[in-house]
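Researcher: Let's try something more involved. This one mixes different molecule types, so please make sure each is placed in the same coordinate frame as the others.
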Amino acid sequence: MRTGSSITAPPTPAAATPSSEPEVRVVRASSQQGKLGLSGYAAHLRWLVAHTPLVLSLARTQLKLTVSRSRLYYLWWMLDPVLDTACYAVLFALIRASTNAGADTVPTVAFLLAGIVPWRMNMACWGAAGNTWLSHRAILEQVRFPHLVLLLARFLSEAWLYAVALGVLMTACVLFGVTPSWTWLLLPGWVLVHGLVVLAFMPLFAIGAAFSLDFLKLLPYLLRLMFFFSPILYSLIPMVPAWARPWMYANPMAMLMETYRGLLFSGYERAPAVLNEAGEVVVEAAVWGLPSAGAVAIYVGAMAAVLLTTSYWFIKLQPTMSRNVSRMY
Amino acid sequence: MSQAPPPNAASSSKPPPPVVRAEGVGVCFRVANPQAAGRGIAGRWLKPRQPFWALRDVSFEVPHGSMFFIIGRNGAGKTTLLRVLAETLEPDAGTLSFTGKVTAFLSMGLGFNPELTGKDNLEMALTLMGVDRATFPERRAEIDDFTKLGPFLDMPIKTYSAGMRARLGFAIATSVEPEVLIMDEVINAGDEQFREAARKRLQTMLGKARAIIVATHGLRQVTDQGHAAMWIEAGRVQACGKTEEVVTTYRRFVKAVRNDPFYDARARAARFAGESPPIPANLSATPLDPVVPVD
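Model: All components are placed in one shared frame. Result:
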C-alpha cells in the first residue's frame, strides 16, 4: 500500500494489511501537494496533540534552563519586573508626574507592578517565538514534528513562571496597601484570556523571524514600542484624551491591562471600551471598573480568530520556514 | 576489501522492495550569487536572488538490509540530501518513498543543550525520537553501558569533550533500533576505540534495521562496511552502485580537480546556471544505475 505525506501534514497511520507487503510512505515535492484545507489543518492539530509528551518535555527543559544559569534561579522571573518597577517608580518620582488615574486610590508601586508583571509574560513568549528557529535549529534539522510544539512548550514554561509571579504580585499588592476584593476571584479566568492573547500572536512573530533576520533585530524595538503604546505604565483616563480612549482598545493590550487593574484594584476608574461606547451592541456594565460580559466575549472571540489565523499560516508555511531557517540561521 | 553481503537480505525469490527510493529529487534555494551580486548593501538589494539547486535530479534506491554510503566533497549536497531523507526539508521536485520509520542523527547530539546534564539531554533526545517515557530507565542503562560515561551523565554537557559528546549522541541515536537510520559523519568524531565500538554497533543494528544511510568522508569505512555507495558532486549524482567502483571513481575525480584551481568556480557557475558540473570527461563514464546492485 502507498500513503502520502509532507512536512506540513502528519504521516498517515499505517493501515492493517493482512499481506506481508510493507507500507510505502510517499513524500512528494511541494509543487505536487494540494492546498492546506480545513481537514489538513485539523489533521495537523491532531498530530500536534500526539506530540504532547514532547511539548511537556521541552517545557520542563526550558524551566531547567531558566534555573541552570544563575544562583537566584526562578526568582529572576519576579525580580525582573520588580527591578523594572523600581526604575520606573524612581523615574516618575523624579519628574513628579502623576501618570496614573489610580494615583489617588492605587499605590504607585502596585499600579506599576500590575502592568509590568503581565507584560513580562507577553514579552518573554513573543521574544522567544522570534528566537525559536535560532534556539532549536539542530532539532529542526533532524526531527520531523509539528513546529507549533516549540511555541507551545515555551508558552507552557513561561505560563508556569507567570502563575508563580502572579501569586507574588497579589501578595505585593496587599503589602502596598491594596485591599483584596471579590474581583480577585475572577483573576484566574482573566489569566486564561491573557494566555489566549499571548498564544494568538506567538506564531506571527515566529513567522516574521523565519522570513527575515531583520525582523528578529527589529523585534525587541517592536515589543518596546508596544510596551509604551499600551497602558502598562499609565492609565487611559488621564493620559489619553477622552475622544481617543475608545480607539486605544484597537490595541489588544489595552483591554488586557485595564481589566487586570480593574480586577486587582477596587474603585479603579477604567476607560470604557469602544464596544461599550456603542451601547447598542453590548450593555455597559463597568460598575466595578470591569468590562461588560459582551465586551469580554467579543474580545475573546477576536483573539481566538487571531489564533486560528496565525496558527493556520504557521502550519501552511512550515515547509517554507524550515527551508528559510536552514539557509538563514 | 571486505564487502559483506547484506545480513538480512531476503533469500526468497522475490526481493524485498527498496527501503528508500528517490526519483528526480531536487532542492532549490534562492540565494544571491556571490559572483553576480554587486558589492555592499546596494549590491545585495539590487541584484535579484537566483535559483541555486542544492540537489538536482537525484535518483537512487537503497536496498533492503544494506549499509548505504553517500560520499562527496564539502558542499556537494550530502547534508541537504540527508535532511530531505529525514523529511525535515521538503523537496522542490521529485518523489521519495520509504518503507520504514526514519531516524536521523545529523549532528553531534540531537540538539544537545550544553547547559543541561547528559541525563537531561538524553531524556530530551529520546522524547524527540518518540520513545515511551516508561522505557527511559532501561534505555539510560543501556546507553550508559555503551558510553561508559558513568557519573559524567549527571554533569552538564558543556563539561564534556568532543569525544564524550560523540559517544553519547551516537549511543542515543542507535538506542531506538530504528527501521531506517540516517547519519552524517558522526562516527569519525571520536577516538579509535569509539570508532571501533561504533562500527560494531552499526553492524549489529544492521541485523535489525532495514537500512543504514551514512554520509561520510571516510572512504575506507565505505569500502570496509558498505554494501552500496553514491557519489554526489554539485548536487547531482555522479555515480551510484558497488562501493569499490564508486569510491575508485571518486578518488580519481578528487585527484583530477585537486590541481585545477578554477574547477570550483566553474562548478559553482554551472550550478547557478542549472547545468551539470564540469566533471572531467574520463570520469563521467561511470554508468548511473538508479537501482543499486547488491551482491
